[in-house]
Amino acid sequence: MNRPRHRPLSIGPLRAFEAVARRLSFSAAAEEMHLTQPAISRQIQGLEEELGVPLFVRGTRHVDITGAGSTLLRAVAPLLDRLDTSVRQVRNAAGREPVSLTTFASFASLWLLPRLHGFQAVHPGIDIRIAANDTLAGPDDAEIDLALRYCHPRDAPAGAVPMFGEVLTPVCSPALIAAGQRGDGPMLAAPADLARHTLLEEDSTLPSAEYLSWRHWLREQALPALEPQRWVYLNFTHQEVQAAMAGHGVALARLSLVVESLERGELVEPFGPRCRTTSPYAYWLVRWPARHERPALAAFEHWVLEQAAGTRDRVNRLHAAEPPHVTELR
Fold first, then answer.
1. How many structural domains compose the chain?
2. pLDDT tens track for 39-57
3. CB 269 within 8 A of CB 176
4. Domain interval for residue 34
5. Which of 7, 146, 238, 255 might form a disulfide with 106, Cβ 3.0–4.6 angstroms?
6. DSSP letters for 217-233
7. Is residue 178 part of a domain?
8. Is residue 37 part of a domain?
């Protein structure tokens, strides 16, 4: 191999490399890319000369990728995928205004997505791209316009606008309550009754887990030694909520994310407002200071903050009125 050069690599040879590495065949890659096999071979050879290392071991009837090739593939494959996604978005959104945001998966599932149709009805010309994962992008990610984040106030980035705080409350399926009232299952009228029920717990090592755990809530209720009938540990908040709705146990839910489910009767608070707890964590809309102000982005931010105000109002109304079924259970 020649000495490696230091100029940027061309996209064409990288695409050829990715196709050969994925198919482990020069002829299959050539067919996929609508090129001749010699053309693919020349691109791979040129790339190897640029890098100064072999990327493939060519056999008579097979092709194997080298260690250097595997290292390059791990970097190239996701970059090409992102590039192709962006190109599709540019082509499909000609004449449309995009807004891209990042948030964590459970917030997207429980709070953002159920409301999004309202925004789209008013702004049909704005496309929304949601990157929902627990690794939130920062302001250096050029593809992201804003973030909806959950963090302690001391960790809120510059430019963050508070949406709502965090209130935690036990919730379960109405069927679980009804079974206890009929005598078909254990009663659930007081916190001590949890000893006969399944507790759904978010399995998290984040600092916020201190406040989201059942152990913290049980200490607040002066029941630090209570052991439930069983535990079910789940990775995400939305999984906890889904399991509670399905009647699999009692979840310690984030009230702001389940308030509509409580209003619709899909979930109930077995102990009412008196057993709610709070945490110092909160939800924030984070604007990136370097982003150019665009009408589409401004419209989406305004809509998010309006929806957040509605969530605060719903939570406050739940504080003011205790559900009728709680009185019946006492």
1. 2
2. 999 999 999 998 989 999 9
3. no
4. 11-92
5. 238
6. HHHHTT-TT---SEEEE
7. yes
8. yes
